[in-house]
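Is this the right way to post structure tokens for a design question? Let me know if I should format differently. Anyway, here goes:
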């Protein structure tokens, strides 16, 4: 069974800012369009939707969006069976029995609202999955609600001309909120609901919690400044203000920055509204309360209220603020202690981070050593290569001792400018011949040598040695075998 409500929001607070938004939305509803109120949590969207439904003076159907919703939760579903049995014994010797079994259909809220012309308030509709809300497309545009096929009822419901729909939603970055299909958004008139202004929040606190106006103004300004300093301006602080105001009024707690009970309330209610670390948020709130004492924020709020009320409240506050210097000193001492605690926490975090870095370096070094061992381990020839290198070094030393007496000590005369071309050619030919003879003599003595050994033994440069060896190869005096130059002459 579906319950029909009469919309009458309790003590709706109307200010000029709220009236402007309400009148805009009411124009669209009266013209037959559906309205979508969009804004952060705590800005009064649901309350305004109920107020608009009350102004339409029609019965109300209220639905709350849910991720577990199915289309049947909006339009209805089969709720059971009806069995009909007829026994015909008109002729005593003949018994005729007829059984009939039919499914029962139960309309849900959307179907009832469309058929009977009620006002539908779909609160936080984007918490339902987009495919569930597809049934609204034809109801809002073609004024026709489509139901599942059935033999016992019509598959289409003609939407009443009095039907109106009011939707509310939070921004898509909120947890548990789905993106809305463009086709549905195109059928709605979206009105952004901003954070209520200071006057509106003060009036809401006064009427909802019955707290005095000076205290209400102080709470509104305190919560707003706290949200600004903690970088939490996107969300609304109205609910926090209502909590503070109601508790202060119900338990006769004086809303002054120097009152210890009021400070405790601020910490309990406001600290959880910030995404910053608890120590940093605590420091910000302490500093804010201390500044409110030193700057006389409460007295300024009193001055903005009615004079008679200000005098009455000041008399009540005199016991709590008779010694403001002592209160400020106490608050400053607590603030210093909190600052020291924050510094100790930061130092401990730095030490822990340094230890983690050192441990990571040790682990990386151990991994590199293990990898090097894995790479080196599979080489069984390492010892053999080392022995071969040592033997090669001994051979080089032996060659040096043998070749040392063969080092050329004769200086070759270089050609000068006064020599004739024939003389220069003769000198160069003589020089080449001497190098050829030296190389052949060296190769005969050592019975073959490499190019580097010939260079080292005869103290020749690489280019000259290569040229002479090629010349000797062409003559047939020297041959190259296995990278060793051998003398072919007996």
């Amino acid at each position: 069974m579906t319950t029909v409500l009469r919309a009458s929001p309790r003590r709706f607070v109307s200010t000029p800012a709220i009236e402007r938004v309400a009148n805009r939305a009411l124009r669209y509803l009266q013209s037959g369009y559906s309205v979508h109120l969009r804004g952060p949590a705590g800005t009064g969207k649901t309350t305004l939707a109920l107020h608009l439904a009350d102004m339409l003076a029609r019965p109300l159907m209220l639905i709350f969006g849910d991720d577990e919703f199915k289309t049947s939760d909006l339009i209805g579903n089969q709720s059971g069976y009806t069995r009909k049995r007829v026994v015909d014994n008109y002729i005593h010797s003949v018994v005729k029995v007829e059984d009939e079994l039919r499914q029962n259909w139960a309309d849900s809220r959307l179907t009832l609202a469309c058929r009977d012309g009620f006002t539908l308030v779909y609160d936080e509709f984007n918490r339902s999955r987009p495919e569930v809300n597809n049934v609204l497309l034809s109801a809002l545009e073609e004024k026709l609600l489509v139901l599942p096929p059935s033999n016992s009822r019509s598959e289409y419901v003609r939407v009443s001309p009095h039907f109106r729909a009011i939707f509310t939603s939070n921004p898509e970055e909120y947890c548990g909120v789905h993106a809305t299909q463009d086709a549905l958004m195109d059928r709605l008139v979206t009105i952004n609901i901003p954070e209520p202004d200071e006057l509106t929040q003060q009036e809401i606190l006064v009427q909802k919690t019955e707290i005095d106006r000076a205290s209400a103004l102080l709470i509104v300004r305190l919560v707003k400044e706290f949200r600004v300093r903690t970088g939490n301006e996107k969300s609304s602080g109205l609910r926090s203000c209502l909590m503070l105001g109601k508790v202060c009024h119900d338990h006769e707690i004086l809303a002054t920055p120097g009152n210890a009970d009021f400070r405790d309330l601020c910490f309990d209610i406001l600290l959880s509204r910030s995404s910053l670390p608890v120590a940093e948020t605590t420091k910000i709130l302490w500093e804010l309360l201390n500044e409110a004492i030193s700057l006389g924020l409460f007295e300024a709020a009193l001055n903005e209220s009615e004079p008679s009320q200000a005098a009455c409240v000041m008399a009540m506050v005199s016991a709590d603020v008779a010694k403001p210097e002592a209160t400020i000193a106490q608050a400053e001492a607590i603030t210093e202690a909190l600052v020291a605690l924050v510094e100790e926490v930061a130092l401990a975090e730095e030490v822990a981070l340094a230890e983690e870095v050192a441990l990571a370096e040790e682990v990386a070094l151990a991994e590199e050593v293990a990898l090097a061992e894995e790479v080196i381990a599979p080489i069984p020839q390492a010892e053999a290569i080392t022995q071969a290198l040592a033997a090669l070094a001994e051979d080089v030393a032996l060659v040096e001792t043998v070749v040392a007496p063969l080092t050329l000590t004769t200086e070759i005369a270089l050609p000068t400018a006064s020599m004739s071309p024939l003389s220069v050619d003769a000198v160069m030919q003589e020089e080449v011949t001497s190098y050829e003879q030296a190389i052949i003599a060296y190769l005969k003595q050592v019975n073959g040598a490499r190019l580097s050994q010939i260079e080292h033994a005869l103290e020749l440069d690489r280019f000259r040695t290569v040229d002479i060896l090629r010349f000797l190869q062409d003559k047939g005096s020297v041959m190259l075998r296995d990278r060793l130059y051998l003398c072919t002459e007996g």
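Format looks fine. Someone answered above. Worth noting: The first strand starts at residue 34 and ends at 38. Residues 308-324, 401-419 have pLDDT under 50 and may be disordered.
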